[in-house]
Design goal:
There is one protein chain. The protein is an alpha+beta fold. The protein has 12 helices and 22 strands. A hairpin with a 4-residue loop joins strand 11 and strand 12. The longest helix is centred in the N-terminal third of the chain and has 20 residues, at 60-79.
């Protein structure tokens, strides 16, 4: 089969682009080198929907950030994804920094950011009581929000599949050729896929894919960001996303609520060489929390339930690069999609869709569904709704993850869903089983048993996140 469009990479940009294209009469396939969606930058970032005041005036980042932020709330409602318009604060600790936030305000006005205000110390402490007494003012951007990035990618993937998009897991593209207007993409395993249009949304490896195709050189710099996640009991520490004044390495250390009511602290910003090393460096979190205490003194490592690291695809031009290949309009490169890539992702998807329509025009489908089936979130239901659900399916009466109150029914739903979970972390991202205080210590083994039963695989073949992430090797007594 020759596909109309092949998308390389199943991050939030790749999956939302697939969803956007699924509205049209295209045969679309996503080629993902790992076992699941959202396995790169999408699963390990701040989850911030930036308002759009930070990007330089006239840049593609600025344009798509503001558009994407305006689109995000309705998109998340449509796809049943956790989202909250909580607003962001860039905090100033000196008169010099007040001048910086005035510059950000003016930049935001020029970028078209709505509903911004520069506030004094009194107003700042009124809306964020735990802010440092040393803070003298802030830029308040009320259109900013928070979202669960991996859940957005999963929801987009499910919607795309329901509308006919195909997925190829574990398809690491290592060769691209073209003959008679047909691209041939070859996996390391020898499998091949053919398509008329290729979208390179490979994140950190987008420069590698561009080079494989026609030798175009891009300089993606992997930028490591390390985070600490606090227990939900700390939710009162911050209601807005709290930034410090930005520097040349990014937006600095933030303290923010997450879409699931934890508190997230970070990230660091260190340029590294390896694109697949997600280790948290020794001592890095102490530095992160020390800097975070400048904004919110009550933030403490003692409340941390886990830490993680993510890598951003920083392009040396400091802007998104979304252009056709120099040698072929049917090969579209998306390179340097770092922050505010998540906030921009709905707009990027539409931007790329229009590029594809110019190369290969077609009509809209009459029966396109922009949504997906609403996932059951048992803990959020009323008692009457829970009882009704249990009456129809007793699996919802069995709590598997006690920290997050996740039922067996929800876990089975996640595995049976369009492009469902096939490993422990896949279940975790779809249901939050294992994301609580014990980090899967109690529920992990039961999740493995359910996966084994649903997938018809021996339990020793169930792994954590694909590849060589084996958990057990053989059954013991």
């Amino acid at each position: 089969m020759v596909y109309d469009v092949a998308i390389i990479g199943a991050g939030v940009v790749g999956t939302l682009t697939a969803r956007a294209l699924s509205e049209y009469n295209y045969n679309v396939v996503i080629l993902e080198k790992t076992s699941d969606v959202a396995m790169g930058t999408t699963k390990a970032n701040s989850g911030i929907v930036h308002a759009g005041f930070d990007a330089k005036n006239g840049s593609l980042k600025a344009k798509l950030n503001v558009q994407g932020c305006n689109m995000m709330e309705n998109l998340c409602k449509m796809l049943y994804v956790p989202y909250e318009k909580n607003g962001s604060l860039v905090v100033a600790f000196s008169e010099n920094e007040i001048e910086t936030i005035k510059e950000l305000y003016n930049r935001g006005i020029n970028n078209g950011v709505p509903d911004m205000e520069i506030i004094d110390q009194k107003k700042l402490r009124e809306i964020e009581p735990n802010i440092s007494e040393n803070a003298v003012g802030a830029l308040w951007a009320k259109s900013a929000g928070i979202v669960s990035p991996y859940e957005l990618a999963i929801a987009a993937a499910e919607c795309a599949v329901l509308n006919g998009v195909n997925f190829e897991r574990n398809f690491a593209v290592n060769n691209i050729t073209k003959k008679d207007d047909i691209f041939q993409l070859e996996c390391k395993c020898g499998k091949k896929v053919e398509a008329r249009v290729v979208i390179n949304a490979a994140g950190l490896y987008a420069d590698t894919i561009a080079n494989i195709w026609n030798g175009e050189k891009f300089n993606i710099i992997p930028r490591l960001g390390e985070y600490g996640l606090l227990d939900r009991g700390c939710a009162s520490l911050a209601s807005h996303t709290i930034f410090q004044c930005p520097n040349e390495m990014g937006k600095g250390i933030l303290v923010t609520p997450t879409a699931h009511h934890n508190i997230l602290v970070g990230p660091s910003a260190v340029n590294v060489e390896e694109k697949d090393d997600l280790s948290v460096r020794v001592g890095a979190l102490r530095e992160v929390f020390s800097k975070a205490n400048k904004s919110v003194p009550a933030v403490s490592m003692r409340d941390m339930i886990t830490s993680f690291a993510g890598l951003r695809a920083h392009l040396d031009t400091d802007d998104f690069y979304i252009e056709p290949s120099k040698t072929d309009n049917a090969f579209i490169n998306l390179i340097g999609i770092e922050s505010p890539g998540l906030a921009s992702s709905p707009a990027i998807a539409e931007y790329v869709k229009e590029m594809v329509l110019k190369v290969s025009p077609t009509d809209k489908k009459a029966d396109w569904n922009p949504s997906r089936r609403k996932p059951v979130v048992f803990r959020e239901l009323s008692k009457a709704e829970q009882e009704s659900l249990i009456e129809n399916n007793p699996d919802y009466a069995k709590i598997i993850c006690r920290c997050e109150t996740i039922t067996e029914g929800e876990i089975r739903d996640a595995i049976r869903a369009p492009f469902g979970a096939i490993d422990v972390d896949g279940v975790k991202r779809r249901t939050r089983a294992g994301m609580g205080r014990c980090q899967g210590g109690f529920c992990g083994s039961k999740v493995m048993e359910i996966l084994s039963e649903e997938l018809g695989k021996p339990i020793n073949e169930i792994n954590k996140f694909g590849g060589n992430s084996d958990i057990i090797y053989e059954r013991t007594k």
